[in-house]
Known about the structure:
It contains 17 helices and 8 strands. The chain is of the alpha/beta class. A 5-stranded parallel β-sheet has the order 2-3-4-1-5, sandwiched between helices. Strands 6-8-7 form a 3-stranded antiparallel β-sheet. Strand 7 (379-385) and strand 8 form a beta hairpin. Helix 4 packs parallel to helix 5 (146-160). The longest helix is centred in the last third of the chain and has 21 residues, at 296-316. Residues 426-431 have low confidence and may be disordered.
Amino acid sequence: MVDLDENGSPARPEMSPGTVASAFNRILDKSTSLYKGSPDILRENYVPPRLLHRDREIERIVEILAPALKGETPSNIMIYGKIGTGKTAVITLIRMDMERRQGLPKPLTFITVNCGNVDTHYALLQTLGNSVAEDEESRIPTGWSLDRVYVTMRTLFEKRGGTILVVLDEIDKLVKRSGDNVLYTLSQINSELSASKVGLIGISNDLKFTDSIDARVRSRLNEEKILFPPYDWTQLRDILRDRVREVFSDEVVEAGVIERCAVYAAQENGDARRALALLRVSSQIAERTGSAVITEEHVHRAKASLETDIITDCVKTLPVQCKILLWSIVSATERRRVPLPTGEVYDGYADLCSRMGIPALTTRSIFNYISEMETLGLIHTELLSRGRGGRYRQVTIAVPAQETLHALEEDEMLLPLSKQRVQNQRSLYHYDGNR
């Protein structure tokens, strides 16, 4: 006979404390019905049926891409904007609408590539070719020469026919890693095709990355530029209100919660992803604690949790040399409590490389890394003037020092630095204790 609880449901078997089942039971017993829709609507990969406060940008992109629906070659587009300004979401919505349209004179194909993952000339051409390959036999294998990969990709494009729109998300990472040769290759491919046409759509968080592109490549690209400005707090508030109506039951979100999430995100470059993440994590904290409503206190706790997670995620994606550079900046700033001139930053980085037995990169490479870390929000830089002595740039950290060092210590390559830091702390403690 099955035992029933007071509600008439089958009773859960007794679990000893410390078991996995008992831990799940404690969490599930606290759960509240905060949601009427899927919490995934608050995640960054969810694309809503409409995007608020992006009408002007949508209109401009549609005007440029509309000729593709007539079988014509559209202009190339370069879309700029900081993280969380709706660039990728807008392109996704436009792509979905264009692909739904029937009766096109010639086929329309979208290929989207994240250049954070596919960041070499070879890998990109291989990926593009395989995206239109009709069967396994026609796919491009690894191991061919670059010239053969390009010729095969071009043949596959020609066989596909129609208009092929290539979306290169995070295109700046591709150029920084592999140079601009791949853009030169793609910009002149239409002169070698007859049955198909190719249009490029680049998406970048770096507003200045095209400065490093060769003039010949820029001339061939001849792209139309579109800037996505950061959202202000009122726009973020509207976006959150729109999602709240879809996700939460009535009166679950207390007054002030949406505004607090919007203000926090507006202070961090107007990032809509950040605002949505704050609201999502706030709801998870409320649910875990058994609260029937989401309060501003839950938002404060969510902010603290996300700051730690963001640092860890950012640091894990950095190359080893960049991690050493960041270690140098953070540890020096922690000791001196003042901004560091970039010359001292490089000297400190080179010293760490020497101790680790690793060759130091050139100053130009390190300054590129400094720009990349500023884009990620790990550091700030400021250009100052010495009068007749010229100008110089100084660096300050934009994240908590201890959390950043702990995240860096997870890389085994930096183990010698970690051990040295522990030894220095012990020496300082011994000195203070006997002073």
